[in-house]
Amino acid sequence: MTTVRPPIFDFDDAFFWEGATEQKLLIQRCGECDTLRHPPTPMCAICGSTNNQTTQSAGSGIILTWIVSQHPTEPDAEPRIVILVQLDEGTRIVSNLIDVEPTHDQVLNDKRVEVCFVDYGGTVLPQFRLAGVQS
Ligand SMILES: [Zn+2]
Predict the structure, then answer these.
(1) How far is the CA of 45 from the centre of ligand 1 (A)?
(2) How far is the CA of 7 from the centre of ligand 1 (A)?
(3) Residues 77 and 108 in one domain
(4) pLDDT digits (tens, 9 = 90+) for 67-76
(5) How far is the CA of 29 from the centre of ligand 1 (A)?
């Protein structure tokens, strides 16, 4: 069983982690210019507004790039596939691809993925699966 260190919430990203516990992928949205951004930041880089809102992502997108993590942060951690997802809403998120064997001899770029939520010992993380694959 994979365990993770619980996230440390701060003012700007608490909504993201609270959303994950409710199985929602929430993305920060500027309340002035509607620009989406992830990870959350205190101020919009486009217009400078601190009017921060959220929007719920449908959780689908494509893999832009990926790696097999071979330097796990914990000595007993299993290798995993770390992916950069281009969400259909237009912003990007780094996450893990689950239910796929972590090998280098495959092509994952441009594959469609869908978010899922996995409880790792009390910490719920948004993760991704290849689209159309049921667990
Ligand atoms: Zn803005």
Answers:
(1) 7
(2) 26
(3) yes
(4) 998 775 677 6
(5) 8
Q: How far is CA 75 from the centre of its chain?
A: 23
- pTM for the predicted model, two decimal places: 0.89
One domain for residues 50 and 69: no
Positive/negative CA dihedral, 114, 88, 53, 51:
positive
Q: Are both 70 and 116 inside the same structural domain?
A: yes
- 39 alpha carbon – ligand 1 mean position (Å): 15
Closest by CA position to 83, among listed 129, 135, 28: 129
Residue ranges making up the domain that contains 73: 59-135
Distance 27 CA to ligand 1 centre (A): 14
The tens digit of pLDDT for each residue in 90-109 reads 999 999 999 999 888 889 99
State how far the Cα of 42 lies from the Cα of 38, in Å rounded to an integer.
11
pLDDT tens-digit map of 27-74: 999 999 999 999 999 999 999 999 999 999 999 999 999 999 877 567
